[in-house]
Design goal:
By secondary structure, the chain is of the alpha+beta class. It folds into three domains: 6-89, Zinc finger, CHC2-typedomain (DNA Primase, Chain A); 107-172; 178-279, Dna Topoisomerase Vi A Subunit, Chain: A, domain 2 (3-Layer(aba) Sandwich), CATH 3.40.1360.10. The chain is 28% helix and 25% strand. It has helices at residues 6-10, 14-20, 67-75, 79-86, 117-125, 130-136, 193-202, 226-230, 243-255, 273-279, and strands at residues 27-29, 32-35, 47-50, 55-58, 63-65, 107-112, 138-144, 147-155, 161-165, 168-172, 178-180, 186-190, 212-215, 234-238, 260-262. It has a five-stranded antiparallel sheet with strand order 1-2-3-4-5, with helices on one face.
């Protein structure tokens, strides 16, 4: 299968793409669409998309670019990986300035237990135990534009889903974190749900202390969820080994010394816990 070109990727309407990915529009004026920055927590939206140019600019940090630039920055992935993911969104062509349609959104058609062989193979390829997947994941059929797809769904606290398939990563609104309560005094925090599922798989036959779990589903929620984290005696951070993960971890360790614990030494040298688990898979 031929993967789309960089030119084709950047021809995808960024406003439509952000909507499909679960980013909520804060306001719009003419061709300018404003969002709260996906790169940090903020009280006023400073992330602007010029829909005529199909480019973004983050006034909080003075940087911007096209859709591919955004994905490379936000997802911290390679260009080939980004092009594969964008293949499913190629129908979201950038409109003419005088013919802007309503924003497309992912429409959930059905939610049920995971039964698709392709999705089962997908989570197995990421070394997630079937018992863990059956407990936390669902199969979500959804409509994106005029086409119907299916993906693994991980539910958040306000009824939205994080959606994953081999070459698709998205969300259905509303986008939020997932807080799993077990009555524990310790909390483990993960950036994405595959990190959480990897942790569960690794420890499914291990005698581990009781913990509650917080899956951020985006590091943009880190500051927002700090009050939840602060209520625990100890907070174990399993964030990504990238600039954003380091920034969030360092900030928490400095503000709350002794309460927050950086667990990334477990998977040093790997992108995240899920990446380490796929390649190593030994218990911590």
């Amino acid at each position: 299968m031929c993967v789309m070109t960089i030119k084709e990727a950047n021809a995808i309407d960024m406003v439509s793409y952000l909507s499909v990915m679960g980013f909520v529009l804060a306001k719009s004026k003419g061709i300018n669409y404003w969002y709260y920055s996906p790169f940090r927590q903020e009280s006023e939206p400073s992330f602007k998309v010029n829909r005529h140019r199909n480019q973004w600019y983050d006034f909080g940090e003075g940087s911007g670019g096209n859709l591919l630039d955004f994905i490379l920055r936000f997802e911290n992935i390679s260009i080939p990986e980004a092009l594969k993911r964008l293949e499913q969104h190629k129908h979201l062509s950038a409109p003419a300035a005088d013919d802007l349609p309503a924003d497309p959104v992912i429409e959930i058609l059905s939610v049920h237990a995971v039964s698709s062989p392709a999705l089962i193979r997908y989570y197995q390829s990421r070394r997630i135990a079937m018992e863990i997947a059956d407990h936390y994941l669902q199969e979500v059929r959804y409509k994106n534009g005029e086409k119907t797809y299916y993906a693994l769904g991980f539910k958040n606290d306000v009824g939205g889903y994080e959606l994953r398939a081999p070459y698709f990563k998205g969300s259905c609104s509303p986008k939020a974190s997932t807080w799993i309560k077990n009555g524990a005094e310790n909390l483990a925090v993960f950036e994405g749900f595959f990190d959480f599922l990897s942790y569960q798989t690794i420890n499914q036959n291990q005698p581990v202390p009781l913990r509650d779990f917080l899956v951020l589903n985006s590091t943009s929620f880190f500051e927002l969820q700090l009050p939840i984290m602060q209520a625990y005696k100890w907070v174990h951070l399993y964030l990504d080994n990238d600039k954003t993960g380091t920034r969030c971890t360092t900030s928490a360790l400095q503000k709350f010394p002794g309460q927050f614990i950086d667990e990334r030494c477990l998977y040093a040298g790997y992108k995240d816990l899920s990446d380490w688990h796929q390649h190593i898979g030994t218990a911590p």
